[in-house]
Amino acid sequence: MQNYWHDSCERVARDWEKTIEKAQHEAELYKQHQVDGVLIENMNDVPYVRDQKIGAETVACMTRLSQAVRSIIPLKIPCGVQVLACGNKHALAVAKASELQFIRAEGYVFGHIGDEGYTDSCAGELLRYRKKIDAEDVLVFTDLKKKHSSHAITADVSLLETAHAAEFFLTDGIIITGTATGKAASAEDLDELAGKLKVPLIIGSGVTKDNIEEYFNKADAVIIGSHFKHNGNWLEDIDEQAVEDFMRSICRLRDATE
Prior knowledge:
Residues 6-33 form a coiled coil. By secondary structure, the protein is α/β, with parallel strands linked by helices. The protein has a single domain (2-257), classed as Aldolase class I (TIM Barrel, Alpha-Beta Barrel). The protein has helices spanning 2-32, 56-70, 88-98, 123-132, 159-168, 187-193, 212-216, 240-257; strands at residues 38-41, 79-82, 102-105, 112-114, 117-119, 139-143, 149-150, 173-176, 201-203, 221-222. The strands form two sheets. It has a seven-stranded parallel sheet with strand order 1-2-3-6-8-9-10, with helices on one face. The chain has a three-stranded antiparallel sheet with strand order 5-4-7, with no helix packed on it. Strand 2, helix 3 (88-98) and strand 3 (102-105) form a beta-alpha-beta unit. Helix 1 (2-32) packs across helix 2 (56-70) and helix 2 runs parallel beside helix 3. The chain is globular. It starts with a helix and ends with a helix.
């Protein structure tokens, strides 16, 4: 039993060090290609549990990883964190401890059913917690009618009404997505919100070098995940050529609008 325990602990330690090294390697690539910001997320931590069941070990590991990334990415480049599923208070604590500038929050206004269970709205509790831990300089960007979820219970509330509710509840930015990871946000959803918000509008899934022009003049920012991976698959490693090609597309679009 002692040998088994010793061997198991050694393996876990090696795997954990590899995880940290990989996160720093990816941070180096993003730094080299001059991305505008970096978002850290425990996407591989499947199956997800709801926020009430997220353990201290998740917060500890995400804090360690965030600090490792922050050691590579200079403070002038914003870094943020999301803790799945709906670990918004956990993410705030990680951001506070790791000098991150924002979090991505789920379930900010209105309830919905996700694949991990029911998610209730959290804006009031979350922003009070942010004040309590003296983290009001950490921005909270919030998903609306988030992907991988059913929104039948709020089907009579439009996307724009949901966005205005999030603004009323003091969100710092609004994120819209497609129906699943890697799926593009619909043109209809974008048009419903573009130019009608007081806070930044962010596209949170499905953006590629081939469709970025559709979003460029209507959204304030985009979050890239799957497109930066080999074969467009979020499970695979970063494809440096994909990052380079995308950043070139962004530069061309910026030059064209100046």
